[in-house]
Amino acid sequence: MTATVLDRLAVEPLWAQLLADLRRRLDQDEFAASFPGELALVAEYGVSRHTVREAVRRLREEGLVIAGRGRTPRRAEPAEIEQPLGEIFSLFSAVEAAGQVQRSVVRTLDVRADGVVAARLGLEESTPLVHLERLRLADGAPIAVDRVWLPERLAAPLLDVDFGRTALYTVYETRCGVRVTGGSEHVRALVPGPAERELLAVPDGVAAFAIDRLGCAGDQPVEWRHTLVRADRFSITARFSAREGYQMDIAP
Fold this sequence. Notes:
Blueprint: H1 14-27, H2 38-45, H3 49-61, E1 65-66, E2 74-75, E3 83-84, H4 91-97, E4 102-113, H5 115-120, E5 128-138, E6 141-151, H6 152-155, H7 168-176, E7 182-190, H8 194-200, E8 208-217, E9 220-230, E10 236-241, E11 245-250
Antiparallel strand pairs: 1-2, 3-11, 4-5, 5-6, 6-9, 7-8, 8-9, 10-11
Helix pairs in contact: 1-3, 2-3
Protein name: GntR family transcriptional regulator
Domain HTH gntR-type: 12-78
Keywords: DNA-binding, Transcription, Transcription regulation
């Protein structure tokens, strides 16, 4: 495949012509191995660096390439894990459903007091909580940092569980008799700090989804969770219809 010759006499600006041709080449998987650098595109198309930068900037905004200051652009990998937000979110189930192996590296599993979290659970600030922090992996690659707080009076039997290959909600129900049936979530985008970037193995400037969840068993709060998920592995879309109403999904 070759680059399309740009028309310098056309009404459409050169950056827009270049953008359209790069989209075409991406659609045809021409850049599967690597995306060309800025100087390579300047030489191939015979345009200025400003033209190339504008086209690549648009590709970056569309999520087709990933580029940061001082870094060579690279093709964005397609999001591969789907999780309907209308259902109880389970990263374990979502990863496994995508045909990948979910494993976790347990960083913390202990009992502690946290006044802020306790208040979110409707408890006294000094209430002891089981705290579980895991680095979640999909086929061995980091995908999320997951931090969970559970009331100790309910979750104490979980302190000796091996969470390396265990779904939390499964053992919460089987060992503790607590079944999470609903709750509320707040999802926002943010750029992780240096420590979390290192854990998630993402470059500078790449955003993540921060998911804050209050999980309930009936009307009783039984879980507070903060999860930071790599945004290059997920995208958020919305579907709605007159029949089914409005629903937010995490989908490829």
